[in-house]
Structure formats: structure tokens, C-alpha cells
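Operator note (shift B, R.M.): manual run for Alpha/beta hydrolase requested after the automated queue skipped it. Running by hand, logging everything below so the morning shift can see what happened. Input copied straight from the record, untouched. If output looks odd, do not overwrite the archive copy; leave it for review.
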Amino acid sequence: MDILLIAGLWLDASAWDDVLPTLTQLGHRPVPVQLPGQGDGAAGATLDDQLAAVLAAVDGADGQPLVVGHSAAATLAWLAADARPERVAGVVLVGGFPAADGTAYADFFEPQDGLMPFPGWSAFDGPDSADLDEAARRGLAARMTPVPVGVSRGVVRFTDERRFGVPVVLVCPEFSAGDARGWIGAGDVPELARAEHLEYVDLDSGHWPMVSRPAELARVLAAAADGR
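Run finished. Output pasted below as returned.
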């Protein structure tokens, strides 16, 4: 199965490099998606541009692909399910949740000159980064590029309720499946509260398992693809 891989904020498609070999060995075709504005110098990119790149990958896939969204890109993966409910075999959300309709995509940190830079590791103290040593932090931070405000402050719009029928696997790295169930049950994640097929998978890692636990993450993604 084609597995489309969408990295979260500040990262380009190379974020998935260490995940690709295991996915290939397990019989799947991993397809990292390059998002406009994240590593390609497109400072004027918008959320619509990023969604267009994801949908182009969906439309170009062999059969029905599995769409994987990491962190904030969980929203992009879910937007793909909304735009192509008949084409997407399933969605995997890694350490992130879809934003609610009508809210900003990822307006988390103050922008500078039209770009939202990586705020530094102090913003991710605790479980998010506990599994990254200093070398891993330096390497990951060096690859991060500021995200255009046209992306981070883009407004999320859903249009097709058939998205709720698309199977979802929520991978829980720096939080537990129990935490996620609680948040969803409390109404904090309205999109997933209406999902008809929602599975939870715990993964012992921080927020960037493609860096700290790439083989383990690959096996989780392969299992989700096999389940489709």
C-alpha cells in the first residue's frame, strides 16, 4: 500500500528518512510529501498550498493510500480525508489531533516577519523531548525552517461529513491512549469524537518518533496499512 507521510511544523519531507527502509521492507511504498513553505523556500505558502500538495499525492497514489499526519499535520491528513473520503483508505495521526472547523491551523507561537520559527527546545520540555539526546536535538533543530503565517494562521474548513467514516488510527507517543480518550470524551477534539472507526496505539517515545523510534513507528504504520 502507498503510505503518504506528512511531517509536522518546521520539517520537510526528509524528516521521514529513517522510517522509509523499514516500511519498504514490510512491503509498503512510503511517499514523503514535501509541503510548500517547509524547506523549499516558499515563504508565501498558504495552508491551501499545503493541502493541494497532499491531495496531489493522494490523487497520484497507486490505489487508496494511507495518509499519515504528524503533529500539526494531523489536520492536513484529516483535511485530505474530508476532500477525498472515497480515495483515502485510512488516516494515521501521530502525536497530533485535527483542528476544529473554523479555527487556525497552528497559530502556536508568535511570528517574526511573516514566519513562525521553531521556538527552541524550552517550549517542548518534558515528555515531548525527553527521549532526544543533545545530538538528536541539535540535528533536528538544524533541519527546522520557519513556517509561513499563511500556513500557521490558515483557517481550517471541513466540507464533507463522509470523513467521519474514514478509519483513523491515533498513535500516542508523548501522551497515552488513556489521555487521548479522556480529551476526546471531554469534547476537546470534536473531529475525532465523531469518527466512526477510531483505534489507539501507544508508542513509547517523545513527540518526534520518526527521529527517536523510526523502526518502531514504521511497524505501527505498516500494521495500520495492513489493517486496511
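Quick read of the result: The mean pLDDT is 97. Residues 2-9+17-105+126-226 form a domain with the Rossmann fold fold (CATH 3.40.50.1820).
Leaving this for review. - R.M.
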